[in-house]
Amino acid sequence: MINFTQLVLASHNAGKLKELQAMLGGAVQLRSVGEFSQVEPEETGLSFVENAILKARNAARLSGLPALADDSGLAVDFLGGAPGIYSARYADGQGDAANNAKLLDALQGVPDEQRGAQFVCVLALVRHANDPLPILCEGLWHGRILHAASGAHGFGYDPLFWVPERNCSSAELDPTQKNQLSHRARAMALLRQRLSLA
């Protein structure tokens, strides 16, 4: 069993911090790396795993605390797994609305049966910046891409991601439901087991 009371989250995204803290529960306090630095590391990895480790090591180095990083994104089958690790900056860093518009444009005229997609989340936890054995947990959430945005909850690609088991978009789920089903929820469930928090 690994015992942490505080972890620094390698993200400046307040939505992600709130979502992951809710999933982690009260036993561990999650702090934003933004408390220590506003500088984002360059995500030079070619996979979710590489980028998650890179971000976790950077956050541990900046804070002196054990660090948790999440690298996640949307992999669309028809697009060969794109936008993938570039999900957050798919439209050159212009934000969620631009990313969603670019994705809809790329899938123009593609029928439902070819719009399969999955949200991917890799969580990497390092005890310190040079930890030789990061804890890695992966979660996948399968669905498909809608033809138009729907719903007002969540962030990122949530309004375009159809959740078959709930018959609605991810952005139509309330946060509690999403936190039980999502790729982050699945990865976090594994992490909770590894940390004996389950």
UniProtKB/TrEMBL annotation:
Q: Does the keyword Secreted apply?
A: no
Give the main EC class. hydrolase
- How many and how are cofactors bound here? Binds 1 Mg(2+) ion per subunit.
Q: Which cofactor does it need?
A: Mg(2+)
Q: Where does substrate bind?
A: 11-16, 72, 155-158, 178, 183-184
UniProt-listed InterPro entries: dITP/XTP_pyrophosphatase, ITPase-like_fam, RdgB/HAM1
**What EC number is given for this enzyme?**
3.6.1.66
Q: CDD domains per the record?
A: HAM1 (cd00515)
Q: What function does this protein fulfil?
A: Pyrophosphatase that catalyzes the hydrolysis of nucleoside triphosphates to their monophosphate derivatives, with a high preference for the non-canonical purine nucleotides XTP (xanthosine triphosphate), dITP (deoxyinosine triphosphate) and ITP. Seems to function as a house-cleaning enzyme that removes non-canonical purine nucleotides from the nucleotide pool, thus preventing their incorporation into DNA/RNA and avoiding chromosomal lesions.
Its subunit composition reads:
Homodimer.
Family indicated by similarity? Belongs to the HAM1 NTPase family.
The entry's protein name is dITP/XTP pyrophosphatase
Q: Which organism is it from?
A: Pseudomonas coleopterorum
Higher taxonomy: Bacteria, Pseudomonadati, Pseudomonadota, Gammaproteobacteria, Pseudomonadales
The gene from which this protein is expressed is rdgB
